[in-house]
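Please produce the structure of this protein holding S-adenosylmethionine.
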Amino acid sequence: MAESPDPRLAAVRALNRVLPGQGDGASLREVLRRGVPDGSAGGLTRDLCFGVCRYLRPLNQWLNDQLDKPIKAKAQPVRLALLCGLYELWFTERPQHAVVNAYPELCRRLKAGWASGLTNAVLRKASRLDAATAFADYPPAVAASLPDWLWRQFQEDWPEQADDMARASLTPPPFTLRVNRQRHSREQALAALGEGARPGELAPWSLYLTPPRPVAALPGFDTGAFSVQDEAAQLPAERLAVPPGGRVLDACAAPGGKTGQILEAFPDARVVALDRVAERLERVRETLARLGVSAEPRVGDAAEPSDWWDGEPFDAILLDAPCSATGILRRQPDVKWHRRRADLPPLVDLQARMLDALWPLLRPGGRLVYATCSVLREENDRQVAAFLARTPDAADLTERPPAAPAVAAGWQLLPREDGPDGFYLACLRKHEAPAPDEQKGDR
Ligand SMILES: C[S@@+](CC[C@H](N)C(=O)[O-])C[C@H]1O[C@@H](n2cnc3c(N)ncnc32)[C@H](O)[C@@H]1O
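Below is the modeled complex.
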């Protein structure tokens, strides 16, 4: 009989691939998509992987403080097993004795029997503490589990909000759905989901479900009645204002979450779904098939329309640009350990080139909605303010709630516990072409 998969062993193997050290820098989501045990064992593997990535910095610091000599680089799996154990003890409700006993055995399975005694001693000591006590004297960037550069950037961009942002980035995200308006009203959907469902406050088709449920347990999920999508991420598509039968460009479409939403909101729109990566467009096709809608897929670089544009203008453009993903660290906590400060200038440059290249494709009177899942101002309001300054026929139409942070353009959402992700959007309108009489004007 095949050996039953050990969820903790699976977590150590996944983390070993994802985290800096011996791994190949693969993204946590990609690694977890394959090679995770089924059912509740898979749930434990995922929890350990996400938890260790979220709290990596203070867990590592505490572990290092306990060691007389550092763990060798080639024994990285032992370090990861210890970090999983610390996370389980301090951030989960699992019985302490079961956690303490599981890891020495795991070391043996990792063929590192030499580490069983060390593991036992470290976890026993940790079981007499809690995280707040263990991390109490750590510098803010360590306690917030952020790389120094990102903590500094949070403080520079958001001096008053940085602490709350860091805290919200450590908590597991809420489970948020988008109701398919072609299938039911939000009230009907809330009634169908029953206890634990509540409407979102910002996006008209959003709802939160606590505790989360497997998507297979959502009524009609397979046939498109719901989609999993953060509330903030639902805001841009609602602002496209597509005229009947209008042509829409979804410029960075994969995996197609917002393409599907555009077609729910504007069912007769003709949508071109563009992405630079052909394989990722296959994900768009799957997303749309579940919703029972279709778009015209196109592989191409949004910054180089001459390679793929057929010359027919668009009534609306969604530019959901590649970005630092610093607004969704709670969903993709491994991003903190992969990103470098040096990655930002090329990203900011690409976003600017995309804005400039796509603007001429928009019909006068049309809207371009620019969006990122970043909280860094150079990718967001400063990016858009610079675009507005160099683009005379563009105006910022973005409506934002009075309590939103003051920014130079658009609407910045900062991550909120039990609320939306960190996200940015700007709704930009192209001036109507002047009438011929006006053109002659006041000469
Ligand atoms: C933030 S994701 C888009 C998410 C998507 N809009 C959704 O809601 O599901 C960014 C996407 O941009 C694509 N991308 C990156 N650079 C691009 C470029 N130069 N041109 C077009 N797409 C690009 C990536 O392949 C990725 O799929």
